[in-house]
Every structure is written in structure tokens, then in C-alpha cells.
Amino acid sequence: MSIPSKPVLLTGASGALGRVLTRALAEKGWTLRLTDIAPFPDEVPPGASFEQADIVDRHAVARLAEGCGAILHFGGVSVERPFDEVVGPNIAGLYNVYEAARAAGARVLFASSNHTIGFHDRSTTIDSESPFRPDGYYGASKVWGEMMGRLYWHKHEVESVLVRIGSCFPKPVDARMLATWLSYDDLSRLCERAVLADSTGCIVVWGASRNSRMTWWQGDDRETIGWEPKDSADDFADEVSGKLSGDPFVERHQGGAYVAIDRSA
Ligand code: 15L
Fold this sequence. Notes:
two-stranded parallel ribbon; binds D-galactaro-1,5-lactone; 35% helix
């Protein structure tokens, strides 16, 4: 069993995915530095420490990253919100994270999103080089994050694994998620591989499980980190395949409900 040689900083630790990763990686014996703007709701596991901090606080982020070998960046706004709520954590916050990574010599795993490409049609298959088509301010902020990854790689050799997460929940809850679902275990293994891989450069990985309805996304760099998903949304098909939005515009696009939020019809 491999363990990173340096501590790993996890931002957004108090969120749903942060808590999942804290449990999974602490169980493996990793040394974790946890941070979030909200208090950590669980008992802090052995090998981990928690500090409450705002991602827009540049000095706090730099201090937290000092001596870390990797940053798992799950902090910031994680759903579509008005621009003024997104800009601080997801735009300035990304600068803080990348500056901290640069100073520490740390690799970044950036929790990007399928909402960077949400306006592609479900009838098409895109790859990681296909044009961005963000479906809101949140999706556009994730495009910015991916661009920061590329900038800091080419200019400063900061490595990044940019994970375009589909729908990471305990189980799929509607028909769309039969394509986009990423299980918690597949996410945890992905983060583990992203940190432990010898070198990554700046790469993109689609964050979805082995769902047979996942015909939308192909061609990423998962081989570089040796990650293959093991779970599948197919097991939930009977339960949720009838759960549609009833809106043809939403059903046409990969981003689902986000494409219709605040839309000028
Ligand atoms: C995301 O990026 C969100 O963080 C999550 O809450 C879901 O909305 C997910 O995308 C999705 O597209 O299902």
C-alpha cells in the first residue's frame, strides 16, 4: 500500500465529497490537512488536522499548502449561483490555490465539472479537447480553473489532474445520471491515483463510473494515472430510467437542468 511522502491538503473538506475523501484517504493512513469555510462536521480522523479558512484568504491558503505534496481542490461554489457569489471562491480562490501549489511545489487535483461542457448535445460524443460550452457562471468558473491548470503547467511546471466530475452522489437519482454518475469509491480511487502517480503533467480525466449509457465522453488521460472506474450506474437503471425532467431543452443537453437556469427563452 502506497502512502504519499508529504501531507495532502484537501480544500472543501466539510462538503459532501470532501467528507467522503477524508474518510477514504485517512483510512489508508494518509496525512491530511483539511480546510473549509464551514466547520468540519465529523470527527477529525487520526492523521488529519482541520483548519477553518476561506479560500479567498491568500495567506491562509499559502500557509496551509506549505510542505504539502498535493492539493485536492474541492473548495468553492459547487452549483450554479449568481455571478457575485461565484467570483470570489471560484475565480480568485483558484489563483490562491495555484499560487500556493507553485510555492509548495505541489500537484493539484482540480475538481472540475461536466458543466464546463454542458451545452454539448447528448447525441454527440466529445473528447477532452472538444470546445468548452459552459452552461452557467459555475461552469464558466470551472473552465477558468482548468485554464489556470494549463497556465501553471506551461509556465511554472505545476502538475494538474483536471477531473471533469459528472454526478458524484451515493447513487444516481434520475435518468441523466445513468450516464453521468461517479460513485464515491471510484472518486476516492481516482484521487488516490492522481496523487500517487509518478508524474502527470497537466491532464484531463472524465469523472464518471463504468456506465453503459456514458456515450457522451471519451478520450481522456486516465492511463497516465492508472485509473479505471469499477462501479456502474447500470445497476440503478430500473429505479431511475423513467425519471426525466419533462423539458426537451434540458433533456437535449449534457448539462441537464443547469442549461435552463436563468435562461432567456
Ligand atoms: C456538478 O458539478 C455539481 O457540483 C453537482 O451538484 C451536480 O449538479 C453535478 O454537477 C451534475 O451535473 O449532476
